[in-house]
């Protein structure tokens, strides 16, 4: 009897682990304000709209309280709660492939379902909604819940794992769509007010606020081997379920899409990140038109130049992007960019050094790999010819590269 009880417990734990990536306990919204303000102006995906005009507070509330209250009332109808279902079969890759089989336990069922949730926002009046790629990745069913209690089925229109952005679409007649107002992430400054509206842990239409903590972070999305440049860091509380929701400035304009956090506990530690809206403006229109976005590809592995490199290579410069490896038959290989040819001891470890050092691209200074990645993503496309200034064996040379398209096999 004890052995049977133990086996049942192990089966329950095993099934729980398999579903933990998509765990979601829906929470009903008990109290919800009735949205009454007039609809905000519709933002063109390629233009920056003026800030929303807000009423000032009265009756003892502070100016910031009045600002946040008005923002919530005006923008909540533009934010959505996304609930997804994924049908899992024997052929579906396990989220925990490293777990061994447990002897004596019954076989897994032929199919079962994982459920999850996230946030999103209305892009236009044609029914397009922007969210994160990881929110709807692999989803069989996508449901969109609106602030007025309307629920609509959605279809996935476009996916981009490299920016962690996705576009889904609902029937535009399902409810009165309230598109967001787009801002300019290039104009954002550290210290500005930052507001998030989303659905953390199923707590629908939750507002949190903080500041812009830092700018220009380059971080891998977790859905692709490539990094997202120029991410916005904020201490506004972002948790599971906030993914895909808008990060807003004090004018109610979207400046980013809340995407990830750094936290040892898995909950908000005040270090959250949003994909900058200027990258979203590039990606979303193509996802709507073609279902995908084509990124330029150079074909190198590199890192920032370090003082140890400067000494070992006897360089007169102190900053740049050091080329470590060049992918065979890549655009960089065809342009004769050269990787490392020696090693140097850094922090007690042998580290590759001695390759080309990229110091500018199309006249724009390159202080490190972040600058190079950001320039290529923001300002170039596949097939474009770019000129780089490179330090090679102590001399500055010009290298012309015809950029390729990131290979599909490098993406998940």
In words, what does this structure look like?
With about 400 residues, this protein is an alpha+beta fold. Among the domains are: about 180-290, Trypsin-like serine proteases (Thrombin, subunit H); about 295-410, Pdz3 Domain. Helices cover about 15% and strands about 35% of the residues. It has seven helices and 23 strands. It has helices spanning about 1-20, 65-75, 135, 275-290, 305-315, 330-335, 370-380, and strands spanning about 80-90, 110-120, 130, 140-145, 150-160, 165-170, 180, 195-200, 205-220, 225-235, 245-250, 255-260, 270-275, 295, 300-305, 320-325, 340-345, 350-355, 355-360, 365, 385-390, 395-400, 405. It is globular. Residues about 1-45 and about 95-100 have low confidence and may be disordered.
Largest pleated sheet = 6 strands, antiparallel, barrel
> What is the C-alpha radius of gyration, as a whole number of Å?
24 Å
Q: Helix- and strand-based class?
A: alpha+beta
Overall body shape: globular
- Strand order across the biggest sheet? 1-2-3-6-5-4
Q: Write down the CATH topology of one domain.
A: Pdz3 Domain
The CATH first-level class of one domain comes to Mainly Beta
CATH architecture of one domain: Roll
The H-and-E topology, N to C, reads as HHEEEHEEEEEEEEEEHEEHEHEEEEHEEE
Tell me the β content: 25-35%
CATH superfamily of one domain: PDZ domain
End-to-end span in angstroms? Answer: 45 Å
Mean pLDDT: 85
> Share of helix among residues?
10-25%
């Amino acid at each position: 009897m004890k052995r049977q009880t133990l086996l049942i417990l192990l089966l329950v734990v095993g099934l729980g682990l398999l579903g933990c990536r998509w765990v979601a306990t829906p929470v009903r919204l008990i109290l919800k304000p009735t949205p009454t303000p007039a609809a905000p102006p519709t933002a063109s995906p390629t233009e920056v709209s003026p800030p929303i005009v807000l009423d000032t507070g009265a009756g003892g509330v502070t100016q910031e309280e009045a600002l946040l209250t008005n923002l919530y009332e005006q923008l909540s109808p533009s934010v959505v709660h996304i609930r997804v279902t994924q049908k899992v079969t024997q052929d579906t890759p396990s989220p925990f492939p490293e777990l061994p089989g447990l002897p004596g336990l019954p076989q897994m069922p032929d199919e079962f379902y994982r459920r999850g949730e996230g946030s999103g926002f209305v892009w236009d009046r044609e029914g397009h909604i922007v969210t994160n790629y990881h929110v709807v990745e692999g989803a069989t069913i996508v449901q969109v819940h609106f602030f007025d209690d309307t629920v609509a089925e959605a279809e996935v229109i476009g996916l981009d794992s490299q920016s962690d952005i996705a576009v889904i679409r609902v029937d535009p007649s399902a409810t009165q769509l309230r598109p967001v107002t787009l801002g300019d992430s290039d104009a954002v400054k550290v210290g500005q007010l930052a507001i998030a509206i989303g659905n953390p842990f199923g707590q629908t239409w939750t507002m949190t606020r903080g500041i812009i903590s830092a700018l220009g972070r380059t971080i891998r999305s977790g859905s692709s081997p490539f990094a997202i440049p120029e991410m916005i860091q904020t201490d506004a509380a972002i948790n599971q379920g906030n993914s895909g929701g808008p990060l807003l400035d004090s004018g109610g304009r979207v400046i980013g899409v809340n995407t990830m956090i750094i936290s040892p506990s898995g909950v908000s530690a005040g270090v959250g990140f949003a994909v900058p809206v200027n990258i979203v403006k590039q990606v979303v229109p193509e996802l709507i038109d073609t279902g995908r976005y084509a990124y330029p590809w150079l074909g190198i592995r590199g890192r920032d130049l370090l003082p140890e490199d400067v000494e070992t290579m006897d360089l007169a410069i102190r900053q740049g992007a050091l080329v470590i490896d060049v992918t065979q038959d890549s655009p960089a290989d065809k342009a004769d960019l050269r990787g490392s040819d020696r090693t140097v001891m850094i922090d007690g470890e042998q580290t590759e050094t001695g390759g080309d050092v990229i110091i500018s691209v199309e006249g724009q200074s390159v202080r490190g790999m972040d600058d190079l990645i950001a320039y290529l993503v923001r300002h170039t496309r596949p097939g474009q010819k770019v000129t780089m200034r490179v330090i090679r064996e102590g001399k500055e040379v010009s290298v012309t590269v015809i950029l390729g398209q990131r290979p599909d096999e490098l993406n998940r």
